[in-house]
TrEMBL record:
This is 3-oxo-tetronate 4-phosphate decarboxylase. GO terms for cellular component: cytosol. It catalyses: 3-dehydro-4-O-phospho-D-erythronate + H(+) = dihydroxyacetone phosphate + CO2; 3-dehydro-4-O-phospho-L-erythronate + H(+) = dihydroxyacetone phosphate + CO2. It comes from Photobacterium gaetbulicola Gung47. Its EC number is 4.1.1.104. SUPFAM superfamilies: AraD/HMP-PK domain-like. GO terms for biological process: pentose catabolic process. GO terms for molecular function: aldehyde-lyase activity; metal ion binding. Residues 8-187 form the Class II aldolase/adducin N-terminal domain. InterPro entries: Aldolase_class_II_sugar_metab, Aldolase_II/adducin_N, Aldolase_II/adducin_N_sf, OtnC. Its cofactor is Zn(2+). Belongs to the aldolase class II family. AraD/FucA subfamily. Pfam families: Aldolase_II (PF00596).
């Protein structure tokens, strides 16, 4: 895709997520790798419902602002993931309702916040490690993500929300939506007797793609 097509795709996918309630107000941010090696990102404080393709932020791998409006400060932690996972070409960060609710629970398994009960969670996400709570904008969020970036496709920032990667922006958005729906189901099923997938069933799904 050309840079112009990628810009238009970011606007379209963001608006779609906004209209379906995955993003509200100015919360959340998106980024993707451009053909020239720079990164396209949502500007600071921008609403997913009202992005302008011509004003999206462009930054380099070190976070230097190249063009467009000023990027979200959270783009720093996107770049930490790109630097440590060359297979990642796009990132979605949301403050979506169910994943954020999950991120506020005590006693989460920090290696995997959602014990698998549906095959698509296993195939699309695998595991969801929890990053300990840090103030938004704290540079240690990037450090924590960098440590885990090569091994996981998604992360849950405690008391904050999800960070989800993909091979392109459509893939990252699909992964984020699958993850949000999985969190919704996990909370709906809380306190009920769940038939979790067995280790054998999980192993059988791993590496099958999506
Ligand atoms: Zn955030």
């Amino acid at each position: 895709m050309t840079e112009q097509q990628l810009r238009e795709q970011m606007v379209t996918l963001a608006r779609s997520m906004f209209e379906r309630g995955y993003a509200t107000g100015g919360a959340g941010n998106l980024s993707l790798k451009l053909p020239n090696g720079h990164f396209l990102a949502t500007p600071t404080g921008s609403s997913f419902g009202r992005l302008d393709a011509d004003r999206l932020s462009v930054v380099d791998i070190d976070g230097n602002h190249i063009s467009g409006d000023r990027p979200s400060k959270e783009v720093a932690f996107h770049l930490a993931i790109y630097r440590n996972n060359s297979a990642c070409n796009a990132i979605v960060h949301l403050h979506s309702t169910y994943l954020t609710a999950l991120s506020c629970l005590q006693g989460l398994d920090t290696d995997n916040a959602i014990k698998p009960f549906t095959p698509y969670f296993v195939m699309r996400i695998g595991k969801l490690p929890v990053i300990p709570y840090l103030r938004p904008g704290d540079p240690r969020i990037a450090e924590e993500l960098a440590k885990r970036a090569a091994d996981y496709r998604a992360f849950l920032l405690a008391n904050h929300g999800p960070v989800v990667t993909g091979s392109n922006l459509t893939d990252a958005v699909d992964n984020a939506e699958e993850l949000e729906e999985t969190a919704k189901l996990a909370l709906m099923l809380d306190g009920k007797s769940i038939r979790y997938l067995s280790e054998e069933e999980i192993t059988d799904l791993q590496g099958r793609g999506k």
